[in-house]
C-alpha cells in the first residue's frame, strides 16, 4: 500500500512539474486559439465550427477548446482546463486578447472609413463587372493546369487571383471561400506598414533616412539606427522570431498590451546596415513611429485607411490593433484576395492609382532594393527574388509574404500580379509561378 501511495505521489509531483514547466506554452496555445477564433468569427464572418475545422486544426492549437459569446463578441479558449484566455472584438479595430477584465469594457476609438470604389468603373478601380476579355497570347489550358496544381491536397490553397494588364484572367477558391472572404495576410501586413512610410515621404512629412525617433536610444549607441535600417530589418538589434517556442514574437503577439515597445528594449547583437534579422517586433516599432507622426491617436488610426487602404479600394481590409490602439502592422491585416491584389497593382503601377500618385516611383525601387546581408531576399518589408529563391521566375519579381503561404507576387516584366492564399508555406510556389508565366506567350 505504501508503495502505491509513493507511486501516486510521484506521479502527482511529475504532473505538477509538467504543468508548471509548460504553463507559459499553454498561455500561448490558448491565446492563439482565442485570438484567431475571435478574428475568424467577428472579422471574417466565419462560424466557430468552420474555424475549428479549418483555421485552428493544426498542432498544438487543435488541443484548445473554444467557446463563443455572440452577444458580447468574445471568444474564450481553454488549454486542457488548466488555463483560459479571452479575446474580444472592437468595431474598426478587430479582435484582441484581453489581459485583464477591464479591457473588454473600455471604450476604444474607431478609425473613419470611406468607400472610394466607383460604381461605374470595373475592378480594380470600382465595383462594376469586368468585361470578359480573352487575351490571344494566353494559353488558358496551361493557365488552369497551373492553378489545378496549386489546389491539390499537398499545396493546400484557399484562393488565387491572377491579374494580367489590370484584368482578372483566372480566379479560384477552395470550398468554403469566395471572392468576398476575408483572409488573414499575416506578414503581408508588413508591406502595408512599409508603404505608409512611402506615402508620408511623398507628402514631404518624413525622411526614412533620418534617425529613428526613439527616446530610449538617444543616449546610447542605438541612436545611429535609422528608419531606413528598421524598414530593411537591418538595425542590428536582437530579436527571436520563433513561433514554435516562447520567443520574442510569441510573447509580443499573445502577451503584450503595447506591441510597439518590445523591439525598443533589445540590445545590439550586430551593427546597423550589416546585420539583417527578420523581426515582427521591428515592424510594430515602425507602427509606433507612424503614430508619433500625428498629433492625435484618431489621426493615426484614420491615416492608414484614408491615405492608402480605402484610397485604393481595399474596403474589405481590417488591420487589427493592440490594446493600446496601435495597429499590429506586423501580422494582423485581413482582406479579400482581390483587395490584397490591389496593393500589388499599386506597386506594379509605381504608386499611381486611377490617376492619383500615392507614392513616388522611386519608392518602388527603394523598397525592392536588396537589404545588405539578406542574400538578395529582402527589401523594405518586401520579399525579393534577387537571390534566386524561385529559380524559374524572373529575378526582378518581388512579393508580400505571410505565414502559412500568403503571397502577393508582382512581376513587372510580365505585367502580372498573382495572389495565393494558403494553409502551408511548403507549396511549390516556383512550379506554380512558372506555370502561369509560360501560359502567357
What's the layout of helices and strands?
Elements: H1 2-42, H2 48-55, E1 64-69, E2 74-79, E3 83-90, E4 94-97, E5 118-122, E6 126-128, H3 140-150, E7 157-164, E8 167-173, E9 183-184, H4 189-202, H5 227-231, H6 248-255, H7 280-292, H8 297-309, E10 318-319, E11 333-335, H9 337-348, E12 352-353, E13 356-357, H10 361-367, E14 383-384, E15 398-402, E16 406-411, E17 416-422, H11 429-438
Parallel strand pairs: 5-6
Antiparallel strand pairs: 1-2, 2-3, 3-4, 7-8, 7-17, 9-11, 10-11, 12-13, 14-15, 15-16, 16-17
Describe this structure in words.
The chain starts with a helix and ends with a helix. Residues 9-23 have low confidence and may be disordered. The protein is globular. It is of the alpha+beta class and 441 residues long. The longest helix is centred in the N-terminal third of the chain and has 41 residues, at 2-42. The protein has a six-stranded antiparallel sheet, with helices on both faces. The protein has helices spanning 2-42, 48-55, 140-150, 189-202, 227-231, 248-255, 280-292, 297-309, 337-348, 361-367, 429-438; strands at 64-69, 74-79, 83-90, 94-97, 118-122, 126-128, 157-164, 167-173, 183-184, 318-319, 333-335, 352-353, 356-357, 383-384, 398-402, 406-411, 416-422. Helix content is 32%, strand content 18%.
Amino acid at each position: 500500500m505504501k508503495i502505491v501511495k509513493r507511486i501516486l505521489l510521484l506521479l502527482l509531483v511529475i504532473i505538477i512539474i509538467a504543468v508548471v514547466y509548460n504553463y507559459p506554452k499553454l498561455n500561448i496555445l490558448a491565446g492563439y486559439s482565442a485570438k484567431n477564433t475571435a478574428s475568424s468569427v467577428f472579422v471574417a464572418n466565419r462560424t466557430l465550427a468552420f474555424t475549428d475545422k479549418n483555421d485552428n486544426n493544426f498542432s498544438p492549437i487543435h488541443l484548445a477548446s473554444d467557446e463563443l459569446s455572440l452577444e458580447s463578441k468574445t471568444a474564450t479558449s481553454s488549454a486542457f482546463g488548466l488555463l483560459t484566455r479571452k479575446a474580444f472584438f472592437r468595431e474598426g479595430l478587430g479582435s484582441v486578447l484581453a489581459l485583464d477584465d477591464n479591457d473588454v469594457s473600455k471604450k476604444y476609438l474607431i478609425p473613419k472609413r470611406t468607400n472610394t470604389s466607383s460604381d461605374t468603373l470595373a475592378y480594380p478601380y470600382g465595383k462594376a463587372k469586368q468585361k470578359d476579355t480573352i487575351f490571344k497570347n494566353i494559353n488558358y489550358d496551361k493557365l488552369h493546369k497551373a492553378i489545378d496544381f496549386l489546389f491539390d491536397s499537398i499545396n493546400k490553397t484557399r484562393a488565387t487571383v491572377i491579374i494580367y494588364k489590370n484584368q482578372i484572367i483566372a480566379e479560384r477558391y477552395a470550398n468554403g471561400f469566395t471572392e468576398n472572404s476575408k483572409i488573414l495576410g499575416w506578414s503581408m501586413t508588413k508591406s502595408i506598414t512599409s508603404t505608409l512610410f512611402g506615402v508620408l515621404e511623398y507628402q514631404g512629412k518624413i525622411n526614412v533616412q533620418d534617425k529613428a525617433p526613439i527616446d530610449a536610444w538617444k543616449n546610447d549607441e542605438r541612436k545611429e539606427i535609422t528608419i531606413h535600417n528598421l524598414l530593411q530589418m537591418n538595425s542590428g538589434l536582437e530579436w527571436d522570431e520563433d513561433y514554435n517556442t516562447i520567443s520574442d514574437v510569441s510573447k509580443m503577439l499573445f502577451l503584450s498590451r503595447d506591441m510597439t515597445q518590445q523591439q525598443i528594449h533589445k540590445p545590439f547583437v550586430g551593427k546597423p546596415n550589416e546585420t539583417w534579422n527578420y523581426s515582427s517586433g521591428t515592424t510594430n516599432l515602425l507602427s509606433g513611429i507612424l503614430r508619433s507622426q500625428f498629433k492625435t491617436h484618431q489621426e493615426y488610426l484614420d491615416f492608414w485607411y484614408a491615405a492608402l487602404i480605402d484610397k485604393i479600394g481595399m474596403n474589405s481590409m481590417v488591420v487589427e490593433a493592440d490594446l493600446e490602439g496601435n495597429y499590429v502592422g506586423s501580422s494582423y491585416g485581413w482582406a479579400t484576395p482581390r483587395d490584397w491584389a490591389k496593393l500589388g497593382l499599386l506597386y506594379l503601377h509605381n504608386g499611381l492609382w486611377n490617376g492619383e500618385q500615392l507614392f513616388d516611383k522611386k519608392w518602388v525601387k527603394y523598397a525592392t532594393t536588396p537589404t545588405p546581408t539578406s542574400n538578395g531576399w529582402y527589401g523594405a518589408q518586401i520579399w525579393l527574388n534577387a537571390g534566386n529563391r524561385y529559380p524559374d521566375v524572373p529575378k526582378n519579381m518581388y512579393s508580400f509574404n505571410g505565414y502559412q503561404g500568403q503571397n502577393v507576387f508582382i512581376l513587372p516584366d510580365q505585367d502580372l500580379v498573382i495572389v495565393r492564399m494558403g494553409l502551408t508555406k511548403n507549396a511549390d510556389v516556383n512550379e506554380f509561378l512558372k506555370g502561369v508565366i509560360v501560359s502567357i506567350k
